[in-house]
Amino acid sequence: MQFSKYQGAGNDFILIDQREHLWLRREDTSRIAHLCNRHFGIGADGLILLQAHPAYDFEMVYFNADGRESTLCGNGGRCIVAFAYQRGIRKKRYSFLAIDGPHEAELTVETSPGHFWVALHMRDVGPIAPWPSGDASGQAQAFVLDTGSPHYVRWVKALEDCDMVQEGRAVRYSAPFRAPGINVNLVEDSREGLRIRTYERGVEGETLACGTGVTAAALAWHARQNLPPGTYEVPVFTRGGALTVRFTALPSGYVDVWLCGPAVEVFQGEISGGLALK
């Protein structure tokens, strides 16, 4: 089975082109988990299938590292656009279908081979209400919102001193979120923008970046500051690199939301045991 490995701000994925061969089915949970295993497989935060679709440039099917099909992955969405370009779908603006509906993306080829800049159009998000955990000042410190995947976002001080796995598991397995699962983000303000760390469900650990989490943090930042309607651009710094979120804030919520950042081909390969299923 041929595959490519991509990363977006350190968030890494196995990409497989299924337009001509059916290599994997949605129910191949253990097989996909094995491929994502960093000791016994290729190793990745997730696996993504590029599939043909009659109404779009392609369809994106995303699986977490545990092998289960999951909700939208923002960095994965950006990486599959770069992969589609490398696999011959040569466009500057793409339209593709993901689990949460249609998406558009814009691609810029960068100077280094295999390096791309991809802006991904995310879903609209309604008004954001604080999660009940404010501090003594009355300013909201936590929010829960869905940017294609569900996210808990909380502001902290001394972000680098936090035990991200312990903090993440405490929220992810708490009563309100245990059954559906949720991604947990800790955020700190800085002069340059926002700094963020993320615990991802399905990976059940910290990842170097999370695109839908970065998007959630940028929108929650606007709500937390109680800023007026308008168009904003927020730099967000993950452990794996810098991303940017552009959006327009309205009284009714957030529209024209774009997640922007690098998508890089790491390597291509072939793994045994991947015979086509048709």
Note the topology.
Layout: E1 2-8, E2 11-17, H1 29-36, E3 46-51, E4 58-64, H2 74-86, E5 93-98, E6 101-109, E7 115-121, E8 142-146, E9 150-155, H3 164-172, E10 183-189, E11 194-200, E12 205-207, H4 211-225, E13 230-238, E14 241-250, E15 253-270
Parallel strand pairs: 2-3, 4-5, 9-10, 11-13
Antiparallel strand pairs: 1-2, 1-15, 3-4, 5-6, 6-7, 7-15, 8-9, 10-11, 11-12, 13-14, 14-15
Explain this structure to me?
The structure is a single chain. With 278 residues, this protein is α+β, with helices and mostly antiparallel strands. The radius of gyration is 18 Å and the shape is globular. Strands 1-2-3-4-5-6-7-15 form an eight-stranded mixed β-barrel. The longest helix has 15 residues. The chain contains four helices and 15 strands.
Quick rundown:
The protein is an alpha+beta fold. It is 16% helix and 41% strand. A hairpin with a 2-residue loop joins β13 (230-238) and β14.
Cα gyration radius (Å): 18 Å
Count of DSSP strands: 15
Number of helices: 4
Largest sheet: 8 strands, mixed, barrel
Measured between the Cα atoms of the first and last residue, the distance is 13 Å
Helix content: 10-25%
Strand content: 35-45%
Mean pLDDT metric: 94
Which structural class fits the helix and strand makeup? Answer: alpha+beta
Ranges where pLDDT stays below 50 over 5 or more residues in a row are: 274-278
* Multimeric organization: single chain
Spatial order of the strands forming the largest sheet? 1-2-3-4-5-6-7-15
Q: What's the shape?
A: globular
What pattern of helices and strands is seen along the backbone? EEHEEHEEEEEHEEEHEEE
